[in-house]
Amino acid sequence: MSTLRFGYGTNGFANHRLDDALAIIADLGYTGVALTLDHNHLDPFAGDVAEQTRRVRARLEQLGLGVVVETGARFLLDPWRKHQPTLLSDEAGPRIDFLRRAARIAADLGAECVSFWSGVKPAEVDDTTAWRRLLDGVAAVLEDTPARFALEPEPGHFVQHLAEALRLRDELGGPEQLGITLDVGHCVAVEPFDAATCVRQAGDLLFNVQLDDMRTGVHEHLEFGEGELDLTATLAALAEVGYRGLAAIELPRHSHAAPDVARRGLRALRAADWLADAERTVRADPARIRTLFPAVGRKAGRSALDAHGLVHGTVDDKARVRLLAALKPEDLAAEVPDLYRYGDGAERRAVLRGLHLLPPEAAGTGVRLVEDALRANDIGLVAAALGPFAAEHLDAHTWRHGVLKCLFVGVPVAAVAGLGDRVDDELVRMVGDYAAERRAAGRDVPSDIDVILQEAGAQ
């Protein structure tokens, strides 16, 4: 396993007292917390903020939690206007004062950094003026404080891309105390590169990481697996660049189910971290796949990726295919036969789903494994066997009988890769005969027969 340190954001525990939130986060197994200063969570404008900060620091130390300070509270500075004023506003003073207060609190907490963003550019302010205001505001915040600050590119804000944040730092002269907060979900939403690439671009300027899933073009924080983030590759990149800061889950709209969401989040992080380490191990020592392959279900999970795990497979299918993909082509060709021969049903299923990775000279091996699976009565093997490899390499006779077997055993034909390309008159005849036999016997006719006939008619 890597040495990554996982935390959780208190803005995802907005309905909990801060002390309760910290206790739950620690009890679940996190080792850090991203603490958003807000009305009910260490209000920086409270008269007794110094004493509150001392108590919070003692509690963090008691629980063994590291901490970063987050400054994205929605209505802390203005009860009417979300996130206002900003460093781009005509009157940026309250924002600068707030960030200075956050720096003092961070110092008193022993926090690793203070995370902040640029804010949305007012419509009446031109880009040149906004950029100057941002430069001046950040420079003012950095004066006379030892605290480290991390600028976060935020979708929809004036600085929404990593390149813009890095440019701002350069134009300020590259101050050592100014780095980057990278929300990996934002990379999915708005960056031209994936999150792993963004991690490498930020490199040792990465002070703080926020973890969540997102979809392309949509700024909505999602739980892992609900968007398009490659979590395993992202964690692998963090380990690769030697990141030592906190990586905290950022789900500010999930407070209604905070403990359960946090529990699921850490489970996903640990699974992805294990898989990233397993990929590194297999690349370095291909033979290790023989011992890692059986462990995948226990470490990564076994849940289905669709209703019954027949169309898209399961979580462990996907993880095992990643291990296969980590092998060089010649090593893959050498390992696949025995991984299938000695594997249990789940391991065989994953081998079948990964056959498209085989080099061309090993296609014969893959065909033999597909033929073996199609003779089985295990519907998981039948579904996995008719993937992209079979669509490309299986002869017409065997492929048609494979499709027919799907109808026999109840495998959705959605699991058959390339159906629309390979369906032919002979398959239509076979399917029609099967339907007629079912009707003559007074039995239901599988609805997937209509799917096959529709594909044939579309040609």
Automatic annotation (TrEMBL):
Record keywords: Isomerase
Origin: domain of life: Bacteria
Boundaries of every Xylose isomerase-like TIM barrel domain copy: 23-271
Any one GO molecular function term: isomerase activity
One Pfam family of this chain: AP_endonuc_2
Listed name of the protein: Sugar phosphate isomerase
Species in which this protein is naturally found: Prauserella muralis
